[in-house]
Specification:
Chain A is α+β, with helices and mostly antiparallel strands. Helices cover about 35% and strands about 25% of the residues of chain A. In chain A, the strands form 5 sheets. Chain A has a 5-stranded mixed β-sheet with strand order 3-2-1-6-11, with helices on both faces. Chain A has a 5-stranded mixed β-sheet with strand order 14-13-12-17-18. By secondary structure, chain B is of the alpha/beta class. Classes of the chains: A alpha+beta, B alpha/beta.
């Protein structure tokens, strides 16, 4: 297991260096857009050691000094398919953001939505050597988790201890120093396709940047779109993106499940394009201007000019009523939501104490979506927008920037991951002398 | 004709790899600072070095500078046309004009006023001098002359000295400056103020006074006519002289045939008579003794 986390540890060290330098970029590689924010850490929040979310929901320590968005190229289903195109798009976004920030950025934290994320719940248990729980005990219990065989070519993206249990007491967030016999841990592990990570790392590297962290888009959207009590009591965040819809379930401020549905807004656009026989760009424009999912009597009389450039007058003057448009869009949106429903059911979302569902992402801006989602997903549905962070431009406050804003929070207050803990002594070859000493202590 | 190759879809605009790198470089703070400060600095230094490495150019620039300086210095505003001397007698003024090191008209930049002042003050007849350039191109030297108080007779001849004992000038004959008293002897010029005090006290003897002689660089002799001398002590010579004058007035002592009055021991003034007087004295004494016998 040790080798697996070398790259993650390296990234974490890189992130620490970036924080030390004070400037880091976050990059949201989406299917429809690539957003880049440049953050400056002023250092007021860096050394905070207290538990929980800090002042101003953990956004006091940094400020967004550069923001740029560009149309995404070469990304499908949240995965990079054409490296050079994506690299150009990343370069465009980064250059604009750097120009706005007027500072050079060397470290970037990236997130993506695709690559078939799979969640695993891990459990581990050890008996304590001493009466109190030490750092080493936590390392041991983390390494005692039996890792499932997640398959060849998959990489661990997140591995977060979500719960510690000491004897019969569960729900501990930090068991260090407590008295007990047996320490158990529940861990949530998220694996993604390794090639997607490699492709993204390669693109970032081609832009002369250091990759200082990776995150799942579903996870970071949840951080930014769910309010604190939703994260605490249990809620699901549906990030309806362009190529995929990310699902993340939060409980006790930890992500306990993440998945993604490989249908998104691009598919809706494609349906419109096919149904109305219009170019993709026109379909996108019609979708954003006139789109909806609930048809009313008014919509029959709402005639939309489709337009065209063929030169054929009849063809170019076509019109369509808004009801027809809604008729095209609604099945696809329903399909997305039903897929999400299926994932939530598979995850056992109905067993959570709170059934709150938050829709965010660019796709959540379809008018009437909340009504449709209520019918499919349950009564407790709301539309979520990312919370405001310092210096965020007005243009980047929409629901489509939930994961970008979540990346800011993720960069400022990262969750403890498996690789952030010490490697246990008995697994660490360089400490063999310590093991020898320990053996002597135990036997003599 | 239809193109065989399908038209490539127009890619979205993106910065090229090199322009992206260039922009990143330009956003590097150190590089920007280097560009803003270092490059102009190096450029100026380099160009300057390249330009001045040619000796002809260096010379031309030096020449131009000198020329410009000359032009400014020789403007009429800065020219000194006249040397005026104030407070000096004709001879001293002549001397000053003689030693004045510059040919007039000269630029006031070239005239070193301090040097001029020092050279004027270095003249024996000048006690102090101050020099300034007055408006209108006139160099004025204010001179305070030394006042001659005595004639110093030495082996080399006669010299005029002031109160500080500085020899102001030579004279050929004593009669040239009949108004001044004469002092002589080695070290006489070092004690001119004392000599002046003695001479002032010797005013009643003026008609007979020939001069003062410094004896052994420590005390004065007053020399009167007929070869008479008054030997004054080292300390308080004026008082001793006054005693002699009182004696002379009361007893006509100096009218008598004395060679010297020795006042060196204040408690025991002594007189030395001439040989003639002694013999006469003996004769008269014998005569008196004889008469008594």
């Amino acid at each position: 297991m040790i080798e697996l986390y070398e790259s993650q540890r390296a990234m974490r060290n890189m992130r620490r260096a970036a924080m030390q330098r004070g400037v880091v970029a976050v990059l949201d590689v989406g299917t429809s857009k690539i957003a880049c924010l440049v953050l400056r850490f002023d250092g007021s929040d860096r050394l905070r050691e207290t538990e929980g979310v800090g002042a101003l929901a953990g956004q006091a320590g940094f400020r967004v000094i550069g923001a740029a968005t560009t149309r995404s190229r070469g990304v499908r289903y949240g995965e990079i398919t054409t490296m050079t195109e994506t690299e150009r798009a990343i370069r465009t976004a980064l250059q604009a953001a750097q120009k706005m920030a007027n500072i050079r950025v060397d470290h970037v934290i990236a997130c993506f939505s695709g690559a078939e994320p799979r969640s695993y719940g891990l459990a581990g248990q050890v008996s304590l050597e001493a009466s109190t729980v030490s750092e080493q005990d936590i390392s041991r219990v983390l390494s005692s988790c039996d890792v499932p065989d997640f398959g060849e070519g998959r990489e661990v993206l997140h591995a977060q201890p979500v719960n510690f249990a000491l004897d019969h007491r569960s729900g501990l967030s930090d068991p260090r120093g407590q008295l007990g016999q047996d320490l158990a841990v529940d861990m949530h592990m998220l694996t993604v396709d390794g090639t997607a990570i490699q492709n993204l790392a390669h693109c970032v590297k081609r832009c002369d940047l250091e990759l200082a962290g990776l995150a799942s888009s579903a996870y970071v959207s949840g951080i930014s779109a769910l309010v604190e009590d939703e994260q605490e009591l249990g809620a699901a965040c549906i990030d309806m993106g362009g190529g995929s819809a990310g699902v993340s379930i939060f409980m006790k401020k930890h992500m306990i499940y993440a998945d993604s549905v490989r249908i998104g807004g691009e598919h809706v656009t494609g349906d419109i394009s096919m149904g109305l026989q219009v170019p993709h760009a026109t379909a996108e424009r019609i979708k954003t201007f006139y789109g909806g999912v609930v048809a009313t009597g008014m919509d029959d009389r709402d005639i939309i000019e489709i337009g065209g450039e063929t030169g054929d007058w009849e063809h170019d003057r076509r019109t369509v009523s808004r009801a027809e448009l809604i008729g095209i869009m609604r099945p696809r949106v329903e399909e997305i939501l039903e897929e999400v429903r299926a994932r939530l059911d598979a995850a056992g979302f109905q067993h959570l104490p709170s059934q709150q569902i938050v829709l965010t992402g660019g796709g959540s801006q379809i008018p009437g979506l909340d009504g449709l989602a209520t019918r499919i997903l349950g009564q407790q549905v709301r539309l979520g927008r990312p919370l405001r962070v310092h210096g965020l431009p007005q243009a980047a406050t929409g629901a489509g920037f939930a994961s970008a804003v979540g990346m800011c929070l993720f960069a400022a207050n990262p969750q403890d991951e498996w690789w952030d803990f010490e490697i246990p002594v008995d697994r660490y070859p360089a400490r063999s002398l310590k093991r020898a000493v320990k053996w002597f202590k135990d036997n003599w | 004709m239809q193109q065989v190759k399908p038209l490539e879809p127009k890619a979205d605009p993106a910065p090229s790899r090199w322009s992206y790198r260039y922009q990143r470089l330009m956003l590097t703070p150190l590089f920007r600072k280097l560009l803003r400060v270092g490059v102009p600095f190096c450029l100026i230094i380099g160009l300057g070095t390249a330009y001045f490495s040619n000796p002809e150019r260096r010379e031309a620039i030096a020449l131009a500078v000198i020329d410009l300086r000359e032009q400014i210095e020789t403007r009429p505003e800065f020219m000194v046309n006249l040397l005026a001397v104030e407070g000096a007698s004709a001879t001293v003024e002549e001397d000053i004009r003689e030693i004045f090191p510059h040919d007039l008209p000269a630029s006031s930049f070239d005239i070193d006023l301090d040097a001029v002042r020092l050279s004027i003050a270095g003249l024996p007849a000048v006690a102090s001098a101050s020099v300034r350039v007055r408006q209108g191109g006139v160099l004025v030297a204010y001179v305070q002359e030394r006042q001659p108080v005595a004639i110093w007779r030495s082996r080399d001849g006669l010299g005029v000295v002031d109160i500080e004992g500085v020899v102001i000038g030579d004279i050929m004959q004593r009669a040239d400056r009949a108004d001044l008293p004469v002092i002589a002897g080695k070290g006489a010029t070092d004690a001119v103020p004392e000599a002046m005090a003695i001479l002032q006290a010797a005013a009643p003897l003026r008609s007979r006074l020939r001069g003062l002689v410094r004896m052994g660089e420590r005390r004065w002799d007053v020399v009167l006519d007929r070869g008479q001398r008054i030997l004054l002590p080292e300390t308080d010579p004026v008082r001793a002289l006054e005693r002699v004058i009182v004696l002379a007035e009361v007893q006509d002592m100096l009218e008598r045939d004395l060679a010297a009055v020795d006042m060196r021991l204040a408690s025991r003034p002594t007189i030395r008579m001439n040989e003639n007087a002694v013999s006469e004295w003996w004769r008269v004494t014998k005569m008196t003794v004889g008469a008594e016998e």
